[in-house]
Amino acid sequence: MTLEAVILALRESWGPDTCAPEDVADWTPDNPSRGQCATTALVLHDFFGGSLVMGEVIVDGQRVDFHWWNRLPDGEQVDLTLEQFGPHEHVVGAMEVVRPTGKTRMDTQYALLASRVTARLAQSA
């Protein structure tokens, strides 16, 4: 499985139903990566391992959210959802985090995105 194939499958699988609940109102087909960072980072981690990285989203000097992306085992940073942010939103910091275990608030969205990506990859094989 190539990184490019997984990236394409992820981008084709995003929807409002795979979006973080707090971002659903801002999700549009014109900004499909909105609210997809955590689930996307986890699915990419499923395929390639490496580290999960988290930064803070800052608006007007205040943290309003967190942003997730990946550092692959070779050190390459992959952030498939950075384009979701407007010019007033800034991501600062980069802290490696441990993958969540147990139940999380994003379990449903993650499971749906992971299943869509797996299905798309199977279709293209």
Automatic annotation (TrEMBL):
This is Nuclear transport factor 2 family protein. InterPro entries: YunG-like. It comes from the Bacteria.
